[in-house]
Amino acid sequence: MQEPSDSTVATLDEELAGDLVxxxxxxxxxxxxxxxxxxxxxxxxxxxxxxVADVRAAVASAREHGLPVAVRGGGHGVAGGGTVDDGLVVxxxxxxxxxxxxxxxxxxxxAGATWGDVDRETQPFGLAVPGGVVSDTGIAGLTLGGGMGHxxxxxxxSCDNLVSADVVTADGDLVTSSADEHADLFWAxxxxxxxxxxxxSFEYECHPVGPEVAxxxxxxxxxxxxxxxxxxxxxxxxxxxxxxxxxxxxxVPDEEPFPEASWGDPAVVFFGCYADDPDxxxxxLAPLGEFAxxxxxxxxxxxxxxxxxxxxxxxxxxxYYYWKSLYLDDLDDxxxxxxxxxxxxxxxxxxxxxxxxxxxxxxxxxxRNTAYTNRDASxxxxxxxxxxxxxxxxxxxxxxxxxxxxxxxxxAAAGLYVNxxxxxxxxxxxxxxxxxxxxxxxxxxxxxxxxFGGARTVAPEE
Length: 462
Ligand SMILES: Cc1cc2nc3c(=O)[nH]c(=O)nc-3n(C[C@H](O)[C@H](O)[C@H](O)COP(=O)(O)OP(=O)(O)OC[C@H]3O[C@@H](n4cnc5c(N)ncnc54)[C@H](O)[C@@H]3O)c2cc1C
Description:
By secondary structure, the protein is of the alpha+beta class. It folds into three domains: 6-91, Uridine Diphospho-n-acetylenolpyruvylglucosamine Reductase, domain 2; 98-208 and 434-455, Uridine Diphospho-n-acetylenolpyruvylglucosamine Reductase, domain 3; 212-414, Vanillyl-alcohol Oxidase, Chain A, domain 3. The protein has 15 helices and 19 strands. The strands form four sheets. Strands 11, 12, 13, 14, 15, 16, 17, 18 and 19 form a nine-stranded antiparallel β-sheet that branches. A five-stranded antiparallel β-sheet has the order 4-5-9-7-8. Strand 4 (98-101) and strand 5 (106-110) form a beta hairpin. Helix 8 crosses helix 11 and helix 11 packs antiparallel against helix 13 (393-410).
């Protein structure tokens, strides 16, 4: 790899609609920053792209000069795939447009849009695309890795609702991929992580959701954690697919409106919503509040838009994060013991241990139809270490890694979720299971030189 010369920089700068950012620019530190404060890379150039022409120019420049490429959608990739040392960042954040076709329940959005951008356009029409549970996450990375949100069990993953995607390939072609065109690429984009080209826009199917939904957000005492998870297991076994609830182990924040006597205490929280009639939903979710006398119960009806933004404040830019997951076939007593024991060892109490209840529409899709794997799993267990003091970094990362290993030893567990994959250190087989070899074939076809090689990519054949 060579450093980009002044003329390389000048040429690309001229070709872009906006301004190329290099280390000499005042804007550089802001431009190189991604959401996860643990990631501190120094790209040679950051190319803000306003459209396909900019993306093609950036890709051509990287190809010509042998620069490593990072593609950045919303910049919320936990593993930091949206930036790269000494290379070129294709920054799609200016492409945050959204165009809704309410009659046909379709929405198309630029690859720099966030879920907040999409919800804002769809919700006035009572529609939603299944996205994530934090509104400033990018639609791009989240969809390309799968995409789990508040309506997942009723309407599936984000990638299951993808109708087509426009992609700039490594050699600069612009192709539309869908079930009918470039179907192999379309297969790979749905759960394969995205390292096969630059997606410039996503077209999704929308569903009727909201504007008001019944929600559960109830905090139970952590000394009853085992009972709470076992209770949830039984509840979930009977729950309709309109119910998507995520129980998690956490520590009560030191702030109002949490009762002061509970600040810092461990808790098990039931969080989620009912993706259908709110009256029905209140009845369906009520048992989660009644299981025990809670520390505090914020459950009730709220607008779907507010629900989608509710956790934003807990995930500020620049905090340190390390998240890693594994799928569980079953939440048996042994798995519950392991979750509680590992949670109790957590050294950084801004963290959570999340149990995403899966199934429903996610499991309806044939495993061979998309690159996303482990569709039969009942749960995804995600260890989220979140901390502010860099001196806690080693302990936080070690806790997550040890916890994942403990879970793997103690329960029927498999794989990991590409969107919660540590720093991307696991092998392809763990990340992509049966899909790894087919992903290799698609990468070999669309990116034989591995221009987009990165943590989420299956390398092409040599
Ligand atoms: C606060 C927070 C909340 C989250 N909540 C959820 C959740 O509810 N459900 C869930 O499933 N996941 C969730 N995630 C995980 C999330 O799905 C991933 O972090 C995802 O990668 C974020 O996408 P992004 O576009 O913002 O990130 P980026 O860092 O921009 O991209 C992530 C990866 O995708 C690739 N990529 C991005 N855009 C493109 C493109 N246009 N073409 C090709 N490749 C591209 C990048 O190269 C990178 O490897 C959450 C993450 C955060 C930080």
